[in-house]
Amino acid sequence: MDRIRIVGGNELNGVIPISGAKNAALPLMIASLLTSDTLTLENVPHLADVEQLIRILGNHGVDISVNGRRERQEEGYARTIHFTCRTIVDTLAPYELVSKMRASFWVIGPLLAREGYCRVSLPGGCAIGTRPVDLFLEGLTALGAEMEIDGGYVNARAPKGGLIGAHYRFPKVSVGATHVMLMAATLARGTTVIDNAAREPEIVDLARCLTAMGAKITGAGTSTITIEGVSSLSGARHRVLPDRIETGTYAMAVAMAGGDVVLENTDVSLLDNALLTLRRAGAEITATETGMRIVRNGNGIQPVDVTTEPFPGFPTDLQAQFMALMTRSTGVSHVTETIFENRFMHVQELARLGAKISLSGQTAKIEGVPRLKGAPVMATDLRASVSLVIAGLAAEGETMVSRVYHLDRGFERLEAKLTGCGAVVERVSD
Ligand code: UD1
Questions:
Q1: Element (H, E) at 55
Q2: Is 76 a residue whose pLDDT tops 70?
Q3: How far apart are CA 328 and CA 323, in angstroms?
Q4: Which of 44, 117, 118, 175 is the most exposed place for a label (fewest CB within 10 A)?
């Protein structure tokens, strides 16, 4: 199994290209199930989760071609992928495929909307909490579907004539359930209003793509989304928006290791809250025409308290990385996690590097230390694993991160991007 070896101590200087957003690419790919025409997505990142979803969509009958040329696929950068689902050949999403990644459960929306029936395994994904599916079931039930859990699977059946538009208010904000409702409602009869919808930029990106496919959607990016159902959707060409979590992760890496880095092909407006927090911690950040420049100001890292919240609040997907940064602050900071109940597994690994962190319920208290020291550590989930890399960049000596398959799910060419800026990071295959 691969590991990542980091020798800490180098500043980061140079340019890092930001990839297309994993969390946008996944629902966009799933949207290809809604039409018999070709959906072309540009700027698709080369990630294990994307490859897994390609397998899942293939199983449902989606014909997929990547840039038309095999060798371009190997390069990894900014792929253009064509998805064509002339007919859905299988409405079953089996456990073996769905259990590896939670987002694959989201096929339930398009399959139900287009075919009127499907059987989808309950999901897997990062072990960061119980992550139930009640909101998906409730939302689709509001559109008239009969939902039943049977043997680890959800059986979903639309009424005769298809799903019916409805007014539904989510009792809790959910990114995935909003994506699914949005997709399902595009083909429902009549108007659907989703209240308390997630406002993440990836929701807006999906809505833009669906609109290009002929859907009638207003309000994406606010808490109320209105969808007027149409009888069919067509193909479209859409560019996946930049990955704001990858952007924030590298910004935190620079704040941690020091240096001067330009993050290219990204957009500061996607992560206002996180960048404001980083500025308060002492980083200098300026928007450029194609992204942003981040410079560590040399005054040490200031302690800052954060609480994770749905967008536009501080993202839970940057919580672990920010905690890594706070381990080197000049005082005491607190990080409170409100989205997932079990998202502190990086704490004990950061402690192996010398961090001083204590947990009380959903809040971590971090006492900054003057130095971290390299050690063997274990990645536990996608975002936690990159927090260990960030900590390793600033630790003295060697840090060896095992279980890097977590990293490969969400960070494209991580070693190459960091090495290109002067870090010592390499993949070691046993
Ligand atoms: C998405 C992101 C993930 C991010 C998360 C929160 C993708 C592929 N993944 O995950 O990276 O960390 O948003 O920003 O986009 N919940 C329920 N019932 C449900 C559904 C969710 O109680 O039916 C709960 C979850 O357990 C969690 C909270 O709602 O506590 C938010 O989860 P949700 O927004 O649904 O996260 P995901 O869509 O799984």
A1: helix 48-60
A2: no
A3: 9
A4: 117
Q: How far apart are CA 44 and CA 73, in angstroms?
A: 11
Would you give the end-to-end CA distance of the chain in angstroms? 6
| Rounded Cα distance, 16 and 263, in Å | 5
Q: What is the pLDDT of residue 74?
A: 46
Rounded to the nearest angstrom, the distance between the alpha carbon of 340 and the centre of ligand 1 is 8
Distance CA 217, CA 219 (A): 7
Distance (angstroms) between ligand 1 centre and the Cα of 176 equals 6
Atom 32, ligand 1: which residue's CA is nearest?
A: 174
- What tokens appear for 287 in the block? 């928007």
- Please report the pLDDT score of residue 370 as a whole number: 93
Nearest atom, ligand 1, residue 135 CA: 23
pLDDT over 80 at 71, yes or no: no
Residues 6 or more apart whose CB falls under 8 angstroms from that of 347 comprise: 323, 355, 357, 359, 364
Listed residue (190, 164, 184, 182) closest to 225, CA to CA: 182
Could you give phi then psi for residue 157, rounded to 5 degrees?
A: -135, 130
The DSSP output letter for 297 is -
Per this entry, what is the length of the chain?
A: 430
Q: Given this model, what pLDDT does residue 298 score?
A: 65
Active site residues: 126
Mean pLDDT of the chain: 93
Answer whether 400's CB lies under 8 Å from 373's CB: no
**Over the stretch 364-397, which tens digit does the pLDDT of each residue have?**
999 999 999 999 999 888 888 999 999 999 999 9
List pocket residues of ligand 1, CB cut-off 6 Å. Answer: 23, 26, 102-103, 129, 131-136, 172, 174-177, 316-317, 339-340
Task: In whole angstroms, give the CA distance from residue 217 to residue 230.
Answer: 10
Q: pTM surpassing 0.90?
A: yes
- Identity (one letter) of the amino acid at 125? G
Query: Ligand 1 test: best mutation among 106, 318, 339, most atoms within 8 Å of CB?
Result: 339
Kindly give the number of the ligand 1 atom that is closest to the alpha carbon of 138. Answer: 23
C-alpha 143/C-alpha 159 separation (Å) is 9
Ordered alpha helix ranges (H), 359-398? 382-394
